From TrEMBL:
KANL3/Tex30 alpha/beta hydrolase-like domain location: 25-167
Transmembrane regions: none
Listed Gene3D superfamilies: alpha/beta hydrolase
Keyword set includes Protein transport: no
Pfam families: Abhydrolase_11
GO molecular function, one term: hydrolase activity
UniProtKB keywords: Hydrolase
Protein name: Alpha/beta hydrolase superfamily enzyme, predicted hydrolase
Length: 206
C-alpha cells in the first residue's frame, strides 16, 4: 500500500493506493459522510477490484483529513474529488480507464462527477436513495444522470431505499442494511464480476 497527500482546492486529501497485478484500470473509492475508507464495504470492494486486475485508490476527503465529521458542501466534495482524479491520472495512472465509486455520500459524489471526470464506469455502494423520513426528497436524478455502466450494491434492508435497474444501471442486492457489513463476500464477488465484464471492452490490445 502507498499513501499519498494530494492537494485540492479545499485542502489536502489522503489517498491509499492498492496495486493489482498488471492493473488495466483504476477504481477510485470515496467514503461515506461520517466514516472513513476503512468501512467494511469499501474494503470488500477494494478486494474485489484488485482480484479483477484493477488498481484501487481509496480517497479520504479533505474535511475528514482535517478531523471534521460533518461533511463539506456537495460542491466542495465534488471539486476535491475531481482534483484527486486529475492528479492521479496525470501522475500515477496515465492512460488507464478510471472507475469512480464510493459508499453512500461517496457514491453520490461519484455519480455527480462521472461526466466531468471522464469516468469509464461508476460503482455505488449503499446509494442513499432518500432519507428514511422524507422519501419524497430522493436523489434518483444523480443516478439517472450517469450514462456509463453503473453498478449499485444495496443491502436488502437499507432504510435509504433501493433504486431500480435501468438501461445503464445494474442493481445487486445483498444481505444487510445501509452499512453493508453482513455479506462482505457478496460485495466482493459482485464488484469483481462487474468490473471484469464492463472493463473487458476497454482492454488495450497486446
Amino acid at each position: 500500500m502507498t499513501t499519498l497527500d494530494v492537494e485540492t482546492p479545499h485542502g489536502p486529501a489522503l489517498v491509499e493506493l492498492h496495486s493489482a497485478e498488471e492493473g488495466t484500470a483504476v477504481l477510485l473509492l470515496g467514503h461515506g459522510a461520517g466514516g472513513g475508507v476503512d468501512a467494511p464495504d469499501l474494503v470488500a470492494a477494494a478486494r474485489g477490484a484488485t482480484a479483477a486486475g484493477v488498481h484501487v485508490a481509496l480517497v479520504q476527503q479533505p474535511y475528514r483529513v482535517a478531523g471534521r465529521r460533518a461533511p463539506a458542501p456537495a460542491r466542495q466534495l465534488d471539486a476535491a474529488w475531481l482534483a484527486v482524479a486529475r492528479w492521479l491520472g496525470e501522475n500515477w495512472f496515465r492512460d488507464l480507464p478510471m472507475v469512480f465509486g464510493g459508499r453512500s455520500s461517496g457514491a453520490r459524489v461519484a455519480c455527480r462527477t462521472a461526466s466531468a471526470g471522464g469516468a469509464a464506469a461508476v460503482l455505488c455502494l449503499a446509494f442513499p436513495v432518500a432519507p428514511p423520513k422524507t422519501p419524497e426528497r430522493h436523489r434518483l436524478a444523480e443516478l439517472d444522470a450517469v450514462d456509463v455502466p453503473l453498478l449499485v450494491v444495496q443491502g436488502e434492508r437499507d432504510a435509504f431505499g433501493r433504486p431500480e435497474s435501468g438501461s445503464h444501471r445494474e442493481v445487486v442486492v445483498v444481505a444487510g442494511d445501509h452499512a453493508l457489513k453482513a455479506d462482505p463476500i457478496g460485495v466482493t464477488r459482485a464488484v469483481e464480476e462487474w468490473l471484469v465484464r464492463v472493463l473487458r471492452p476497454l482492454a488495450r490490445p497486446d
